[in-house]
Structures are given as C-alpha cells and as structure tokens.
C-alpha cells in the first residue's frame, strides 16, 4: 500500500486546484483524466500529492469548530522558510487569514474553499505541539 494523495472536496475542484498550484511552487497537475470534477496535483519529483473533488453539496468547514456547524475534518501543515513572507504570498494568491491564531509561531489560513491550513518553520514545533 502507498498513500498517493489527500482529497479535498470543494464546490469547484479546478478552482481549488489552481489555488494550490499557485501556493505550492513547482507543483503540477499529475492526473487530469478523471473527468471535470477531479484534479490531482503533485510536488516536483513525485510523491504524495493533493487531489480535489467537486462536491455539489459542499459546505465549508468552520475554524475554530463550533456546535451545529460543519466541523473541520482535516487540515494541511505546510513547512516554510519564512512564515511572514509565505503568509503574505498565500494571501496574495487567494488565501484568507483565519480570525483565530492559537500559536505565535504558526499562521492559520483558509483556502478559497474554507479549508484551514497552517504555515510554520522547521525551527518551531509543528502546529499543535507545544514549544
């Protein structure tokens, strides 16, 4: 067995894939033959990628979670060299800064479909771990 991708649902798979292609330098479309509602992208050199599926009934998750609201099921942790610089770049390509920032060394952002993702450096503990 080999994990090939994590799949993110969205109201428009192609729009969300385009965002992640702008966010993740060097990544490219890996497979695009599964129809108009699926896109698969991978990092340079291959490896585990991200896939996107159009879901007509998609409801964006809520961060942080709250009662009677769509719960976040998964989020992406993305290691960067400079959190502030990459936060600015992520915002420029279409991300939104989350209202709640629980850790000083991590930036929580939302992709255009509302999925949370975290930017952090290798000098800080991964998101969710204490310093």
Strand order of the largest sheet: 1-4-3-2
| CATH topology tier name of the largest domain | 2,3-Dihydroxybiphenyl 1,2-Dioxygenase, domain 1
> Low-confidence segments, ≥5 residues, pLDDT <50?
none
Please name the fourth-level CATH homologous superfamily of the largest domain. Answer: 2,3-Dihydroxybiphenyl 1,2-Dioxygenase, domain 1
N-to-C CA distance: 34 Å
Helix amount: 10-25%
Q: Judging by the overall fold, what is the CATH architecture of the largest domain?
A: Roll
InterPro entries: Glyas_Bleomycin-R_OHBP_Dase, Glyoxalase_6
Pfam families: Glyoxalase_6
Protein name: VOC family protein
Organism: Streptomyces levis
Please characterize this protein's 3D structure.
The strands form two sheets. The chain has a four-stranded mixed β-sheet with strand order 1-4-3-2, covered by helices on one side. A four-stranded mixed β-sheet has the order 5-8-7-6, covered by helices on one side. β2 (28-31) and β3 form a beta hairpin. The chain has two helices and eight strands. Helix content is 16%, strand content 27%. It has 131 residues and is of the alpha/beta class. It holds the Pfam family Glyoxalase_6. This is VOC family protein.
């Amino acid at each position: 067995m080999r994990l090939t991708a994590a799949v993110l649902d969205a109201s428009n798979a192609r729009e969300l894939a385009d965002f992640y292609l702008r966010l993740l330098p060097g990544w490219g479309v890996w497979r695009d033959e599964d129809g108009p509602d699926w896109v698969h992208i991978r990092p340079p050199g291959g490896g585990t990628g991200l896939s996107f599926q159009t879901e007509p009934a998609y409801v964006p998750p809520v961060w942080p979670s709250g009662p009677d609201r769509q719960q976040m099921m998964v989020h992406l942790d993305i290691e960067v060299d400079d959190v502030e610089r990459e936060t600015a770049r992520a915002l420029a390509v279409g991300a939104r800064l989350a209202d709640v920032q629980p850790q000083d060394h991590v930036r929580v952002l939302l992709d255009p479909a509302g999925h949370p993702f975290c930017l952090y450096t290798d000098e800080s503990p991964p998101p969710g771990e204490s310093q």
